[in-house]
Amino acid sequence: MNKLKLPFFDRSKLSGDFIFEAVVGSFAFGIIILAFLLFNELFIGSELSRNTFGLSFLTTSTWDPVNEIFGALPFIFGTIVSSFLALLIAVPFSLGIAIYLSELAPEKLRAPLSFIIELLAAIPSVIIGLWGIFILAPFIRDQLAPPLSTYLGFLPLFQGPMYGLSMLTGGVILAIMIIPITSSISREAILTVPAHQREGAIALGATGWETTQIAVLPYARSGIFGAVILGFGRAVGETMAVTMVIGNSPLISASLFSPSYTMASVIANEFVEATSKLYISSLVEIGFLLLMVSVIINIAARILVWKLLRVEGGGRA
Amino acid sequence: MKLKIAIILIMAGVLLAGCVGEQPTEVMPAVQSTTVQPTKAPETVTLNGAGATFPYPLISKWSSEYNKIKQNVQINYQSVGSGAGIKQITARTVDFGATDAPLTEQEFADVSRILQIPESIGAVVIAYNLPGIQKGLKLNGDVISDIFLGKIKKWNDPKIVSLNPGIQIPEKDIIVAHRSDGSGTTFVFTDYLSAVSSDWKSNVGKGKSVNWPVGLGGKGNEGVAGLLNQNPYTIGYIELAYAKLQKIPYAYIKNKAGNFIEPTLETTASAAAGAVATLPAGDASWSSVSIVDPQGNDSYPLASFTYLLVYKDQTDQTKGKMLAEFLWWAVHDGQKYSSELLYVPLPNEVIGLNEKTIKLMNYKGQSLIQG
Q1: Distance (Å, rounded) from C-alpha B29 to C-alpha B16?
Q2: Out of B13, B182, B219, whose CB is closest to A33?
Q3: Can you give the residue range of the structural domain that contains A180?
Q4: Which domains are delineated in chain B?
Q5: Cβ–Cβ under 8 Å, residues B354 and B118
Q6: Span B22-54, pLDDT tens digits
Q7: Chain A residue at shortest CA distance from B84
Q8: pTM for the full model?
C-alpha cells in the first residue's frame, strides 16, 4: 500500500476531502450499526421467551396471555399463507402490467401509466385497510365467496362460513399492495433485455407473443423472480391493512374463508397493552422471527437481481 | 485504508452513541415523554400523563378546562394504552399514568408507593345485530359466556329464547366479534364472565387480551362496531359511550338481584356505589378490586373503574402541588364534564375515598394539599 494514500502521512490530503469522506462514511456505517443494534435488541429482548418456550414457541399454537402460554405457529402460518396467496394473485397481474408497459403499450402511454401504478404504492396502508373493511370485505363475502363455495366447495380451501374478514380478504389486500413494487421492478428487468434479443426472435419469424415468450421473459427471468421476492418481503411485513381485514383469530385452518392472524398484526394489536415480562418477551420474539424472515427474503431477492445484472450479452433462451 | 475505515467506524459509533448510551433496561414502546412548552408565564408547569385510551376524551377535556382556571398549568396526556402508561409511570418518565385495570400484585410490587385514584367509570355493553330486533334483547351471564365459549351456536337456542318471551328470534348462526387489540374493554368483559361463569374462569380467564375460543377479532371499538354493522347476526362487546354515539343496539343484562338492566350512566353509577364498601385505601393494592356483577337492584353488571396513577412521594414541590390540586379538581368539579361525554360520574362515596388518597400525596413528608 502506498504511504501517500494514508491521510496522516500526507498533509495535503488531511483536508476537506478526508473530513468529508469520514463524515458521509460515518452516516453509511451508522445505518449498518443501527440495523445490527436493532437485531441485537430484539435478540436480547426475546431471551426470556426463548428460554421459557424454546423451539416449542415455533411449533405450538396456543396463544394465551392470561395463563402466559405462548406459541407462535398460527401467526407464522397466517403470515406465510397470506403472503403466498398475495403472490399467487399479484404475480400474473404484475407480469401482465410489466409486459404491457415495456413491450406493447404505445410509447406515449408508458411513462404516465407506470407513474400511476407506482403511485399506488404511496397510498397509506390504513387507507387501503379502511377500503378493505367497508368495500372489499363485504364484496368478497357477498359476491366472490358464494360462487367459490358453490363451484369449488369440494376443495377444503373454500369450505365453511364466510364473514368477510378472512385469509382470502387479507391475501387480496396484500396482492393489491404488492402489485406496484412487483410490476415496476419486473418492468425494469424486462427493459434491460437488449434489443437484439427481440430482433433475433423476430428475424426467426416469431410473433409478438412468441418474442416475449422465447426472447424476453427468459432473459429477464431472474430479475422478475427478484421482483416477486421483494413483493413477498413487503407482504410479510405489511401490518395495518392486513390487521384490519384478516379477522385476527389465531387459527390454523385449511379454508381461506376462515379468519387468520399474522405476526405483524399480533405485535401491533397486543404490544401496547402487554405488561408482563414474558408476554412482552414473546411478542419481541415474534418481531425477531419476522425480521429474520424479511432479511432472508431480501437477501435472496438481492442475489437474484445481482445475478441478472451480471449476465451480459445474452440470456439462456 | 484500514486506519481510514477505523476512523469512519468510530465516528459512526459516536453518531449512535445516543442510542446505545441510554439503553432502556426493558423494551418499551417508543413514546416521547417530555414536551417542551413555549412558556407564556415564567412559572408555567407542564404535567405529563400517559396511559389508557378509554379516558382520553375526558382527560383532554379536563386539560383544556383546567387550563382556563389555572393558566400556568399545562396538562399533556398521551393515550398510549394502559400497559404503556403503567410502564411509563414505573420508569418515572411521566407525572401521572392511567390504566383501565387496577395494577396487578406484580405491577404494584414493581412500582414503589403508588396511589391509585379511580377517576371515572366505564361500562361495557353487549351489542348485537339482529335484523328486526332493535333494542332490549335480554341476556344473562350464563348465556353470554356460552356464546363466547362457542357452546351456544344458534340465535334461537332454547336458552336465549326462554329469556326473551314474545320476541321472534331467527334460526341463524351466531357470529362472535371481539377486540383483537389488548384493551381495558376486554378486561371488563372477561372479568365479568369470569365472575359469573366458572366455565369461563377455568377455560379462558380474565385479561386485556385472552385466548378467544371462537370469533372474529376487530381492532378497537370501531373494528368491533364495523363487524357488527356489516354482519347481520353478530354479537360483540363495546364501550357504552361508543354504542350510544353510534346507535348500536345493545342487550339488557340480568344482574345479581335478578333484574334485567339497561346499561345507562345511572345504572352503571349504581354498580359503583354498591361496591364502595369493599374498596381498599388509595395506597394499598387494588389488584382484587372489581365492580362487575355487583349487588343492588338497579346495578348494571359490566362496569369498571378507570384509574389515575401517581406517586405518593412527589420529588418536586411545585409540580407535586400542582398535580395534587389538579387531581382534587378532577375528582370534584371535573366530574361535571363526565355525563356530556358519556362517562359515568363518580358516586360521592368514591369521591370521599379519593379525597383521602390525594391528601396522602406529599413532598418530603409534607402534605401537598389541605382539601
Answers
A1: 19
A2: B13
A3: 79-268
A4: 45-121+273-287+304-367 (3.40.190.10), 124-270 (3.40.190.10)
A5: yes
A6: 444 444 444 444 444 454 445 788 999 999 888
A7: A272
A8: 0.81
